[in-house]
Structure formats: structure tokens, C-alpha cells
Amino acid sequence: MAPAVGRAAFTIGVAVLLMALFALFYVEPGSPEFIADVLALVFDAVFLGLLVWYVRRAARLPTHRLSERQEPTPVKREDENQE
User: Fold this and answer.
1) Burial level of 6, CB count in 10 A (0-12/13-18/19+)?
2) pTM for the full predicted model
3) What is the pLDDT of residues 48-72, one digit of tens each?
4) Spans of all domains in the chain
5) Is-contact 17 41, C-beta < 8 A?
């Protein structure tokens, strides 16, 4: 995942989480709005958890740099050796 995509997804997730937390204080417990708000909090928390796990996992994976790659060994043809 590109860093900009991860950063944008994290920003959107935190914004939704903050809005759901803010709305939680203004809805009545037991109302349909309250249930929808709690579900939004749960889904957003799962989303942020998976996103953080994926980004941290991707940061630990080894990356191959161009200088570290081995050059392919040249293949000699049999007809080149016969002169």
C-alpha cells in the first residue's frame, strides 16, 4: 500500500470515529440512532485495527532494492564455444 493511501484511509477512519463518538452523547440509548452509532463505532474500530495491522506488517516485510538484486548470470550457448 502506498503511504499516501494508508494515511488517507487512517485520516478518514479517525474522522468517522470522532464523529461517531461525538454523536454518541446526543442520541438516546435504546433508540435506532444509538444502535447505528454503536455499530459505526465497532465497524470503524475494526477498520482502524486492520489498517494499523496491515501497515505495520507491510513495514516489516523485506524490500528489495535495485542495488541488492543479483544480476542474472549470462548463459553461454554451446555454439559460441566451438570455433
Assistant:
1) middle
2) 0.67
3) 999 999 988 888 877 665 555 566 6
4) 3-60
5) yes
